[in-house]
Structure formats: C-alpha cells, structure tokens
Amino acid sequence: MSHVTAPSLADLAVFGGTPAFAEKQHVGRPNLGDRERLLERINDILDRRWLTNNGHYVQEFERTIAEMVGAKHCIATCNGEIALEIAIRALELKGEVIVPSFTFVATAHALQWQEITPVFADIDPRTHLIDPESVLRLITPRTTGIIGVHLWGQPCDVEALSAIADEHGLKLMFDAAHAFGCGTSTRLAGTWGQAEVFSFHATKLVNSLEGGAIVTNDDALARKIRLMKNFGFLGFDNVGYVGTNGKMTEFSAAMGLTSIESMGEFVAHNHLNYDQYRKALANVPGVTLLEYDEDLHANYQYVIAEVDEEESTISRDWLLDVLWAENILARRYFYPGCHRMQPYRAYFPNAGLLLPETERVSARVLVLPTGQTMTPQDVDRVCGVIRRAVDHGREITARLERAGKRLHGDVFGR
Asked: What percent of the chain is modeled with pLDDT above 90?
C-alpha cells in the first residue's frame, strides 16, 4: 500500500518550494477576442490610411457603446483618465468635489490636476461603494459636484446620490471604469448623472488596448466634450474652444469592437471562475468573497476577497506574500486609499478619522486572478494555496516575520 506524504510548509514557494504556477497569474490579464477578426480590421485600417481623427472604426465603436448602454451620446477617448478630466472640465466643476477615497487614484487625480479639491467620502462596508450619508456630511458652500464610482461593476446608490445632488444644486457624474455592461435589471451604467466615464484599458473586461469613453444624454454637453477632446476644433482652421488631444486611434477602436464581440464569452468565463472561487473558499476561516447581487447585471471582472486576520490567523499582507511566491499575483486594490497617498495625505493628514470603513476595508481586500486565461482548475490551485496558508497562518506569519520577507510589489493598473 503506497503512502502519500502530506505537504509540509517547506513545500510552499515562499519557503523555497516549487511555485504552484510556472507562469505568473495576473489580476486583469488582457482578454483577447477573435484574433482573425481583429487582424481583418487592422488591415482595413491600413488600406484606408486613416489612423486617427474620428475615423470609421472610432465612429462605429461610439455607436456600438451608445446603443449597448442606452445612452444618446458616446465620445471615445485615448484613455479613461483623459475622459475623466474632460468630463470634469466640461461640467465646469470647481472648488470641492466629493469622491470616495476607496477608488483608483486616477479618480482623485483627475480633479487635483485641474486644481479642484477632492473631498473624500467613506464607503458602505458591505458593497465598498460610496456612502450617501457620508457624502451629505461633507457638503460645504464650496462643493460643486459628486463623482460616484461603480466599484467592482456594482452600481452606486444612484437614487440617493441623485437626490442629494438635486437638493443641493450639485453636478453628478460617475466613474464607471469597472462597470461596462453592468447595472440594474432595467438600466445599465452609462445613463446616470450628467455623464459617466468608461475605461477600456487592457486590464478591463472589454479593452481597446488603451482607451476610454464619456457617455451622456445631454446634447449640449456631448457637443462640448467632442470639441474639448479635439483641441476645440469646429472645423478646418476654426478653433472655438479650449481643448486637448483626447482622441482614440483607429487601432484602439478596432480592438474595442473585437473585444465587445466576445464580451458574452468573457462574462460567462468570469462567472464560472467566480462560482468556483466561491465554492472552493466557502469554508476557509476569515476569507470572505464579495457577493454579487444576482438581481444586478455584473461582469464578474473582479474576484474580491476580504481577509479577517483574527479568524484567518494570517494577515492579508502575509497571505499576499505567500501567493506572490507561488506566482499568484493577487492585488491590494485600493490600498491604502487615496487619502493616504500623496499629495492628499499632506493636504488632509487626519482624513482617516472620517473614513473608518475605508481604513478597515483597504487593509483587508485581496483581488484574486481571473479572466480568459484562468480555468476553474487554476482557481482550485489558487484556493488550495490560500487554504493551506490559513491552516498554518500563525506558523507562516512567525517564519515570515523572522525572515522579514516582502515579495509583492507595486504594479500599475486598476
């Protein structure tokens, strides 16, 4: 009778063992659609010799997005950050604008870049979304607007934020970088507030290599945004507005269209992986997955775990070291919160006192790999490492503390 030896801690890669994955598993590794269709579009672009400046594929991309989300206008841009900056400027925001601190720093930077003060609101600890009650407490005579963030593809409490904006005469827009194709049973992100902004960065469910878009139902605002993203040109040799260069290229639009065509496949794959994560981690002490409301449209782009150190016996950060050693590059979105990043921590050194849920959640969140290149079997391997780390949390923590190991680094993206 053969005897199978139980794995020891020495088998963990962080202690010298062989990594669970030979190739690094990333959060947000790009999804690729039909390669042949993409190459057909690229060859057509080259034949047309029209590479940018509102070409055929950009126009098709804009029409496709507007129709998908139910918005009157879509203006494609070179990236999501420029889209945020243009939308903010087009809405004539100034003074103070309320945003969540628990978001990618681009949301705050898009304001600060234009000398507008981002005022950081707290979040709902269950959903991680901006808390309308916190927003109410932060309104001052200098407040001109609110930017809600549809985090993890979940829509904000749009009704509450709209009521607050209406009551106080504030502009309302949304950072929907995570939320393309997401929304309620009757309405998708892209039709709320004065404007919403999508990101089509390479890490997104649908990507255009780099890219973004502003969607709005306001005709005058859309016209203004189109001028602003193209230097303010009204026509040849006729500049009628101060603008910038925010144009999307034809190659990016071709990738975006190809990606949209495979969007259903991407969502189904992510949903399968999410269900496998939920099943495999169901009984792991101190590790809880963010639950997606089945009544909402979700794209399952992100698998979000919270690590409770008291229950798991290992902190989120030590668990992260264990995972990185196994080539599982989980991420700490959005640690440590915008209010603890520069320049904001210098401007608002005591902001954390008003953001207890942001402080707590940012110290616990762990984003796990998913996407087109991850299979349910890969998910099981990731969860096996997590389960093992939790089973031996105290011993692993003690050994890593003695060694002073720190493996996870800073990787850009959201």
From this structure: 91
pLDDT at 283 over 90: yes
Q: Residue 412 pLDDT more than 50? A: no
- Local confidence band at 8 (pLDDT 50, 70, 90 cut-offs): confident
- Contact at 8 Å (CB) between 51 and 241? no
Query: Residue 363: which of 318, 327, 407 has the closest Cα?
Result: 318
Single pTM value for the model = 0.94
- Is domain 35-261 annotated with CATH 3.40.640.10? yes
The pair of three-digit structure tokens given for residue 398, joined into one six-digit string: 């003690």
Taken as a whole, the chain contains a residue count of 414
Dihedral-angle region of residue 231 (phi above 0 means left; psi in -120 to 50 means alpha; beta otherwise): left
CB 198 within 8 A of CB 177: yes
* Burial of residue 355, with CB atoms counted within 10 A of its CB: 0-12 exposed, 13-18 middle, 19 or more buried: buried
The structure tokens listed for 360 are 């707590």
263-330+369-403 matches 35-261 in CATH topology: no
At 93-129, the pLDDT tens digits run: 999 999 999 999 999 999 999 999 999 999 999 999 9
pLDDT digits (tens, 9 = 90+) for 132-156: 999 999 999 999 999 999 999 999 9
Mean pLDDT, rounded, of the chain:
95
Q: What is the pLDDT of residues 22-73, one digit of tens each?
A: 999 999 999 999 999 999 999 999 999 999 999 999 999 999 999 999 999 9
- CATH superfamily entry for domain 263-330+369-403: Aspartate Aminotransferase, domain 1 (3.90.1150.10)
